[in-house]
Amino acid sequence: MSDTTIVVNGVPRRVPEGVSLAVALWRLGIHSFRRDSTGRPRAPLCAMGSCHECRVVIDGHADQRSCLVEVREGMKVELPT
Amino acid sequence: MSTAARRLDLVVVGGGPAGLAAANAAAQAGQQVLLIDQAPRTGGQIWRHRPGDVLPASATRLIGAVVPPRVSVATGAAVVDAISAHELIVDFGGRIAMVETSSLILATGAMELFLPFPGWTLPGVVGVGGIQALLKSGLSVADSRVVIAGTGPLIWPVAASLAKAGADVRLVGEQAGRMELLRFGAGLLAKPVTLAHAVKLRFAALGSPFHCNAWPVRANGSDRIESVTMQIGEHQREIECDWLATAAGLIPRTELGQLLGCELSGGAIAVDSNQRTTVEDVWAVGECTGVSGDHGARVEGAIAGLAAAGTRKIPGGLMRARNASRRFGARLERLCRPRSELVDRVTPATVVCRCEDVHAAALDPAWSARQARLYTRLGMGSCQGAVCGAACRTLYHHEASRVRPPLAPTQVGGWADCLSRHDPDQPSEAPSSHESPTD
Fold first, then answer.
1. I need a surface site. Which of A53, B226, B284, B415 has the fewest CB within 10 A?
2. A44 in Cβ contact with A79 (< 8 Å)
């Protein structure tokens, strides 16, 4: 399986083709997808689009469920550090 | 402008085994069908795949048969609103449009039931089906330590997949007791094929200890899970892990059905023996009518696809298979019923609504669902109560809440434009929730 490049918080990163964005981010060592109201990290729970914990900004669109999206060359992803 | 020419014969919402079978049967009968699914590919949960993955022959056949031009397929698409059973508002990956249809088949599937416990919001705490979904979507678990704590047959294929992928499965836990498990297993004796499959799966995960009467009491860690405190029978044990895959069984996804006015029965969309709901021209199939597995889902899909296409006589073999599957579903429900100790885990500091950070301490158990929502914003966040609503039906015996659109995140402008184009007298602004699903 070959790789593709996505841009995470402005930084180009190589990820495997054909994986979900949620999996790609986890494989990059990103284990916090968003922060709760007290600043604690959250990450995918259901991995199938129900829980909305995996939401990130994709190509400028907010609240995109990363578990429902496959990585695509040049995809721009933003999430809180 | 006449819209009659653009009206489809059938829209199927959900592209898992049930929806695929329905679309296939209807297309076979000459219907013009559109299948919609919010995931990037069809297959639902059980047949989730990436290009090149090996699937069961029945899956490959159905997925291969439900493609254009025979069937129109829209993936990455979600139904956000329904003006009636014949007029759906769909967000096609950012482009929002109205879809008109004569018939509608709901195949919206199931989701996992997550009952809150201390530490359940830590990264690395996922569902049992959840970790399976991540695995199938490319997650690497080689040498990762995984604890599985769930209920019902699902824990077995998940344990087997994890073991095959090189994970160190530290424990496979079933919340039900030994008697409940034996009773369920005895029911499988009547179906040798299922029993053989179950034995095969058990052997695949033989290296991992199995316990019934087992459930997580607390997930421990700071930025992600580091260990889980498990209750195993009379004792508690702390097990270090990188992943905790835990849930309390599966529950039907009924939101679109509810929005359309379909009656529910036992938490699922109520259907007759031809899979008709209580709303005219709307059928429902598969797990959203009651969790009973993919074989039953396929059979129900075929029945509804034929019925929606106007077939008068449904083959007797399909009906018999359907009835057998419903009986299995009833046995499954008995096994997976959450034990009271799962409710007792909740402490005042436990998060109940994850989206809005509502802790148990903020919730009066005597409140109705509506009161809880109005006083604390429980269920008003991004998931719109999908997770906490289900949890609170078990924790506090909340009634099923009224479902409001949008059913998926969407752009208000596009949604409003769609609605105003439907009714030229309506000003183009954010719509209020509909009082009635039909005009």
1. B226
2. no
Chain A and chain B share a number of CB contacts under 8 A equal to 116
Q: In this complex, which of A18, A47, A61 lies closest to B51 when CB atoms are compared?
A: A18
pLDDT of residue B438 exceeding 80: no
| Average pLDDT over chain B, rounded to an integer | 93
Q: What's the token pair of residue B178?
A: 């030994």
Is A36 near chain B, with CB under 8 Å? yes
**For residue B172, which amino acid is it?**
V
Q: Pick from B132, B109, B123, B155: which is nearest to B268 by CA?
A: B109
Q: Which of B403, B298, B354 is nearest to A46 (CA)?
A: B354
Q: Are B83 and B100 in contact (CB under 8 A)?
A: no
The pTM score is 0.94
Read off the pLDDT band of B425 (50, 70, 90): low
Q: Could you tell me if B227 and B239 are in contact, meaning their C-beta atoms sit under 8 angstroms apart? A: yes
- What is the DSSP track for B268-296? EE---TT-B-SSTTEEE-GGGG----HHH
The Cα–Cα gap between B126 and B111 comes to 13
CB B79 within 8 A of CB B312: no
Chain A residues inside the 8 Å CB shell of B362: none
B 405-424 residues with CB below 8 A of A?
409
To the nearest whole angstrom, how far is the Cα of A80 from the nearest Cα of chain B?
Answer: 14
* 8-state DSSP, B418: H
Residue A70 and residue A6: Cα distance in Å, rounded?
Answer: 11
Q: 3-state class of B432 per DSSP?
A: coil
B384: its two tokens:
């719109």
Taking an 8 Å cut-off on Cβ atoms, the answer to whether B123 and A47 are in contact is no
Chain B within 8 Å of A61 (Cβ-Cβ)? Answer: yes
Phi, psi values for residue B292, rounded to 5°: -150, 15
- For B379: left if phi > 0, alpha if psi spans -120 to 50, otherwise beta; the answer is left
Q: What is the pLDDT of residues B29-85, one digit of tens each?
A: 999 999 999 999 999 999 999 988 999 999 999 999 999 999 999 999 999 999 999
Report the amino acid identity of residue B300: E
pLDDT digits (tens, 9 = 90+) for A3-57: 999 999 999 999 999 999 999 999 999 999 999 999 999 999 999 999 999 999 9
CB contact under 8 A, A47 and B134: yes
Closest by CA position to B216, among listed B207, B225, B203: B225
Number of other residues whose CB lies within 10 A of the CB of residue B433: 10
Which pLDDT value is given to residue B4?
43
Sign of CA dihedral B83, B399, B262, B133: positive
